[in-house]
Design goal:
By secondary structure, the chain is an alpha+beta fold. The protein is built from 4 helices and 8 strands; from the N terminus they run ββααββββααββ. It has a domain of about 120 residues: Thiol Ester Dehydrase, Chain A (Roll).
């Protein structure tokens, strides 16, 4: 499985690992506030140095099950940053520094498995309060309400990787007002994030007892070679 964060085949690669630690460099594509990295992208990227450290510590088939992050200051993009991962109870404490300044830190909880986790495997249970909260949120979602920047005629961070309309390679998650202090968003992914099928198999299990509909989205580098598990053809030298 290709890692979106550190695989050399990814043109937007963020992390480079070596025995001394991890160097992280976020391309401008992942910007949040001008000159800085989107906070959600930075928080998710903490898993990469943690899993690299877990592998070095001898953990097999390690997977991140939860990330709790704290942003200390703006994280500059297009600049080399240093990440460290220190083993802690249940996972790793990870920090990313710009020089001596800590930009973001967090705890990455890590679990090991007898084999690489499959899509149907449950690696972490969601919080118990999540399901009723989602039901409450779905009751106030009105798809006829336009995104807030269309209502106001302005977007404060139009190049934001998550919600910026001018970031053509962003996630295109456009929040809408649903009431006082409440927003919601649907997601229309950029084509580089969408798997249009092509015979690829997705393993899905519905345990709700109700009819389910789903859209499979894979975050892989645009143009990267897809993983294929095939028998050895006998003509490969490695």
């Amino acid at each position: 499985m290709l890692c979106y964060c550190c695989d050399p085949a990814n043109p937007d690669r963020i992390a480079t690992h070596d025995p001394a630690g991890t160097t992280m460099r976020f391309p401008a594509r992942f910007q949040g506030p001008p000159g800085n990295v989107n906070g959600g992208m930075a928080a998710g990227a903490l898993a990469c140095p943690a899993l690299d450290a877990a592998t070095r510590d001898g953990m097999t088939h390690a997977a991140a099950t939860r990330i709790t992050a704290r942003l200390h200051r703006g994280i500059p993009h297009s600049r080399d940053l240093q990440a460290t991962a220190v083993r802690a109870d249940g996972g790793y404490d990870v920090s990313v520094r710009d020089g001596e300044d800590v930009c973001i830190s967090g705890r990455v909880e890590v679990a090991t498995f007898a084999q690489q986790p499959c899509p149907e495997d449950v690696v972490s249970s969601p919080p118990g309060e999540l399901e009723p909260l989602l039901r409450e949120m779905s009751a106030v979602c009105d798809p006829n309400v336009p995104p807030f920047f269309e209502q106001t005629g302005d977007h404060p961070i139009s190049g934001c990787f998550s919600c910026g309309p001018s970031n053509v390679r962003g996630l295109h998650i456009y929040p809408r007002f649903a009431g006082v202090g409440v927003t919601w968003a649907s997601w229309s992914p950029d084509p580089s994030f969408v798997d249009d099928g092509g015979g690829h198999v997705h393993v899905i299990r519905n345990e709700s007892g109700s009819v389910a509909q789903t859209t499979a989205v894979q975050l892989i580098p645009a143009g990267a070679v897809r993983r294929q598990d095939s028998a050895d053809p006998g003509n490969c030298s490695f």
